[in-house]
Design a protein that fits this description.
The complex is a heterodimer of chains A (about 325) and B (about 250). Chain A contains 9 helices and 17 strands. By secondary structure, chain A is α/β, with parallel strands linked by helices. In chain A, strands 7-10-6-1-4-5-11 form a 7-stranded parallel sheet, with helices on both faces. In chain A, strands 14-13-15-16-17 form a 5-stranded parallel sheet. In chain A, strands 2-3 form a two-stranded antiparallel sheet. The longest helix of chain A is centred in the N-terminal third of the chain and has 17 residues. The radius of gyration of chain A is 21 Å and the shape is globular. In chain B, helix 3 runs parallel beside helix 4. In chain B, the strands form 3 sheets. Chain B has a 9-stranded mixed sheet with strand order 11-10-9-12-8-1-6-7-13, with helices on both faces. A two-stranded antiparallel sheet of chain B has the order 2-5. Chain B has a two-stranded antiparallel ribbon with strand order 3-4. The chains are: A alpha/beta (about 325), B alpha/beta (about 250). Chains A and B meet through helix 4, strand 7, strand 8, strand 9 and strand 12 of A and helix 1, helix 3, helix 4, strand 9 and strand 10 of B. Strand 12 of chain A pairs antiparallel with strand 11 of chain B, so a sheet runs across the interface.
Chain lengths: ~325, ~250
């Protein structure tokens, strides 16, 4: 028996969130007295980390077609890996790819899919997990009663703890149906080398208070100093000041960084829904009554054009 | 074009979330229910597609009890032609997907549209499960949708950007912005919604592998620590030594 973990890579490296998924799986494996089997695509460069965080075996799939994020293909490959490894439980770190794979993979394995899990499982009365609901405003504890389970885990669900295991690499070739890679890809438009918003530890975000896209330099400057991803509020995205994929909010990206800096953002409920999982929120707004100050950890009432450059300079010296 | 649009009925975004009965029930008193915002995008696109084609039928589908009917009527007012309500509480994503698949099984919909997830339980699995159950290709999240004959050209969101893809109908799609703009029902729409067909059917029985135990609220946030606009240095120190985030 084993627990299978999808070790998703980004730009040739296993993502930190995937290593968190390994630690999550470790709680299951230790309860079941089974081992963890990781699945990687395209031999990422940091495979030893998978062993460090608990993978006894690593199935390496080298079919180059997997560089395209075809949900059907990934689901079939992971289902095949689960059968090959004798896994009743598959763990994925939440991501755009994981989200697109969950339901397909669960159906293929006749498994229950539990998405957005935010803490380690609870085995006191069966196999229970805590899910994030109401877009981060609440949680539900649910018992997973089927023999097979597919679980997606949110960022920071578990504390990172090393759990060294053999990490033996084996080549694996899943059998794929005609539906894998069947959807025609015409074009891809994505940024590379930039910090991904959904994975970012620090986010610097701007709202309508910045008055126009030409003023975004101070957002990107601060982000650069902090090694942060940049985000924006819905009105800014609707006005096309910033690209749609920077929109943080109820119907945009939900972020869970350690630090979220909100500049010129009033803090409408729709925006707050996207940032509620942030550990620390800093708000800079010239309106002392802006609702953002109700959710912020630290706040500065002031003109962003004045405060932000000063704050960036202070950060530069401190980091 | 025959389109099935699946909608959820959810508390509006400003709702205060509270639980009762030892955290086993959601307090719905005083809550305003709306069409799930992502489902609202799906519905808007369906109406646009039907208007552009000049023909077709949009059925709106909802799993929920009788108190959801005002939300269904709103979807009819926005432009759906008829509606079906499965008379059952939407207990989890698997249950909902089974209801949709059972209803859609022999009806040859060109498109089954819904939001990428509902904003109450955020499972995000219904479209995928429906697709698997019906043997129909599913894609989510879809940000743009054009139909030409039997071919759909779509933009789907991927990490850090988007991918333009093409697939033949029929399809099951999980929708999100900016696929369309939310539609506000016209007076005419509201009037005609009253007489459009709203059929109530009984649920098919299913075996879910997820058993609800209880709700939980997050720990309340501490009061915001205000710092003077000319004391950014103090903020930096706090971020470093107190919050430990830099």
């Amino acid at each position: 028996m084993s627990v299978l973990v999808f070790l998703e890579s980004s730009e040739g490296q296993i993502k930190k969130s995937a290593l968190e998924a390994l630690v999550f799986a470790g709680h299951i494996a230790s309860h079941e007295q089974s081992q963890i089997v990781g699945v990687v695509f395209g031999q990422p460069s940091n495979l030893t980390e998978a062993g460090t965080y608990g993978a006894a075996r690593i199935l390496n799939i080298t079919d180059s077609r997997f560089s395209a994020m075809d949900a059907q293909a990934f689901a079939e490959a992971l289902a095949g890996a689960a059968r090959h490894a004798g896994s009743n439980t598959v763990v994925l770190a939440k991501s755009a790819l994981a989200d697109s794979v969950m339901a397909k993979l669960a159906s293929m394995l006749d498994a229950t899919a539990a998405t957005n899990v935010v803490a380690q499982p609870d085995f006191s009365n069966g196999f229970s997990v805590k899910r994030s609901i109401f877009t981060g405003k609440a949680f539900e504890n649910v018992k997973l009663t089927a023999s097979h389970k597919v679980i997606s885990v949110k960022k920071n669900a578990v504390a990172m703890v090393e759990n060294p295991a053999a990490g033996t690499i084996e080549e694996f070739t899943p059998s794929l149906s005609a539906k894998a890679f069947a959807i025609k890809s015409l074009a891809t438009d994505k940024t590379t080398g930039e910090v991904l918003l959904s994975d970012a530890e620090i986010v610097v975000s701007g709202g309508r208070g910045l008055k126009g896209p030409e003023n975004w330099g101070m957002v990107t400057d601060m982000a650069k100093i902090l090694g942060a991803a940049t985000g924006c509020s819905k009105p800014v995205s609707d006005l096309h000041w910033r690209p749609h994929h920077e929109h943080v909010g109820q119907t945009g990206i939900k972020v869970s960084p350690n630090l979220y800096v909100a500049i010129g953002i009033s803090g409408a409920i729709q925006h707050v829904a996207g940032i509620s999982s942030s550990k620390v929120i800093v708000a800079i707004n010239k309106d002392a009554d802006a609702p953002i100050f109700k959710v912020a950890t630290y706040g500065i009432v002031g003109d962003a054009f004045d405060v932000v450059p000063k704050l960036t300079d202070a950060l530069k010296s401190a980091i | 074009m025959n389109i099935l649009v699946c909608i959820s009925s959810v508390p509006d975004t400003t709702s205060k979330i509270a639980f009762s009965d030892n955290d086993t029930k959601f307090v719905s008193a005083g809550i305003t229910y709306i069409i799930g915002p992502y489902d609202d995008y799906a519905l808007a696109r369906a109406v646009e597609l039907k208007e552009a084609a000049g023909n077709g039928n949009i059925t709106v589908f909802h799993v929920g009890e009788a108190d959801s009917e005002p939300v269904i009527r709103k979807a009819l007012a926005i432009g759906a032609d008829d509606a079906v309500r499965v008379n059952a509480a939407a207990t989890d994503g698997y249950f909902v997907a089974q209801q949709i698949a059972a209803y859609a099984a022999n009806k040859n919909y060109d498109l089954i549209l819904m939001g990428r997830e509902s904003i109450d339980y955020n499972s995000g699995i219904v479209h995928g499960l429906v697709g698997e159950q019906l043997g129909v290709t599913s894609v989510s999240p879809v940000m743009k949708l054009e139909i030409s004959g039997n071919l759909a050209t779509m933009d789907r969101e991927i990490e850090g950007g988007k991918e333009t893809i093409q697939a033949a109908l029929p399809l099951v799609l999980g929708c999100q912005e900016p696929i369309a703009e939310w539609k506000i029902p016209s007076m005419r729409g509201i009037m005609s919604a009253r007489t459009k067909s709203l059929q109530v059917i009984e649920p098919v029985s299913t075996q879910s592998g997820m058993q609800f135990e209880k709700y939980e609220l997050p720990a309340p946030r501490t009061t915001c620590k205000m710092i003077g606009a000319d004391q950014v240095q103090e903020l930096v120190s706090l971020l470093k030594s107190e919050a430990k985030v830099i």
